[in-house]
Write a structure and sequence with these properties.
The chain has 147 residues and is mainly α. The protein contains 3 helices and no strands. Helix 1 packs across helix 2 and helix 1 packs antiparallel against helix 3. The longest helix is centred in the first third of the chain and has 60 residues. The N and C termini lie far apart (45 Å).
Length: 147
């Protein structure tokens, strides 16, 4: 079995931190909207949480795949992944807004609050993990600015 590189391990830890934070926040909003708005509120919050978690999981998954690549490849991969994910979200939004009767049953407040809460939960989880990562830093002494 091949050994996993430190870069991929760090990317995996960030993914797990984000997943934990996103799931905690998403679950909390589902429970809150379940009590506040019943089954419709809970399902609306759950849909929003699933979409947010999928959005971030795909992005972090791409980062795990290219973790050991040169920086230019990492940047291009991240930007391409982001463009793809935003395009998919745009199509979903277009479908929802284009069919207001079909999606009238969704609790719009539950969708918005759960989306925001799950994004914040994901980011808090990632920040918490990132603050604890051990990332080696090497200062080059070749031809650089000296202080």
């Amino acid at each position: 079995m091949a050994e996993v590189s430190p870069n991929r391990l760090r990317a995996r830890r960030l993914l797990l931190g984000g997943l934990a934070g996103g799931h905690i926040a998403g679950f909390a909003t589902v429970v809150v909207f379940g009590f506040a708005s019943g089954l419709v509120g809970a399902l609306s919050a759950a849909v929003a949480a699933v979409v947010v978690i999928a959005f971030f999981t795909i992005g972090q998954g791409v980062q795990m795949v290219v973790a050991d690549a040169e920086p230019r490849v990492v940047l291009i991969s991240a930007l391409a992944s982001y463009a793809f994910r935003v395009s998919v979200l745009g199509v979903l939004l277009m479908v929802v807004l284009g069919n207001p009767v079909t999606f009238a049953a969704l609790d719009r407040i539950g969708l918005v609050v759960a989306t925001i809460a799950t994004v914040i939960g994901w980011l808090v989880g990632e920040f918490w993990v990132f603050a604890r990562l051990r990332i080696p830093v090497y200062d080059s002494t070749e031809g650089g600015i000296t202080t």
